[in-house]
Amino acid sequence: MQLYCLPGAGADATMFRPWADRLPPDIELRAVRLPGRHAPHPEKPFTGCVEAADRLATGLAAHLRAPYVLFGHSMGALLAHQLIGALARGGLPPPLLYVSASWLVEGTPRERLPDPAASDERFVEVLARLGGVPSRVLADQEVLAFTLPVLRADFELCRTYRFDPGAPPLTVPVRAMGGVADRVTPVEEMTSWARHARRFLGTRRFPGDHFFPRDQTARVLGAVVEDIRAVRAAARAP
Predict the structure, then answer these.
(1) How far apart are CA 130 and CA 128, in angstroms?
(2) Residue 118 pLDDT grade (very low, low, confident, very high; cuts 50, 70, 90)
(3) For residue 138, is pLDDT > 70?
């Protein structure tokens, strides 16, 4: 069983490094490495969610083996959601399970996110309020200059997401996760997934804010493994 994980805005595949040693031997971690996040940057970061999903589908096509699971946090959950559609258009197998952490199917309201067109000062101010970027990064001008272009591109990508109210519900089982103190994507709003997934498994609530997967690694991973086991057993049942 392959567990494909997509990071949030400004993060990279190393976000999921602590998961590697905690997974059972029958589940393989595959943290997706998005462009523009390793030095030197051979490619520019994605700025459009449709293009990003198509590129991801093309890049993963040769590696996907059913059954597999998609886990996405925040922007990564957006990409995973769009990726499911791109995989279907390419005739590729769907995931066994899609886990959306801190992302609303209708999209997160723009006023809750940093504006990629804002000045550096204003952009950093909103980032600091969200709490997702370590204070040492925000205080280091050299590191910040390296990081800001990726963050701006990521939030531009989030703004290109367009919810289609007429789209059919996902046929893939969907689990939503949220932090009880999340002000960007309140966990209470995650229940809206029930209207857009034929098999909605409910919302799991965790201590913490928008970045609870980073702070509640053991609990989140335990919940993911539990869901994988349950969905896989249901798929095998006569």
Answers:
(1) 5
(2) very high
(3) yes
- Dihedral angle computed from the Cα positions of residues 179, 180, 186 and 187, in that order, rounded to the nearest 10 degrees: 80
pTM for the whole structure: 0.94
Measure the CA–CA gap between 238 and 32, rounded to whole angstroms.
34
Please report the DSSP string for 33-73 in residue order.
--TT-SSS-SSPPP--HHHHHHHHHHHHTTT--SSEEEEEE
Distances (CA, A) of 114 to 49, 62, 74, 194: 17, 35, 14, 28
Q: What is the CA radius of gyration of the chain?
A: 17
User: Which of helix, strand or coil describes residue 96?
Assistant: coil
pLDDT at 116: 93
Residue 172 pLDDT > 70, yes or no?
yes
Q: What is the DSSP letter of 197?
A: B
Count of CB atoms within 10 A of residue 64's CB?
17
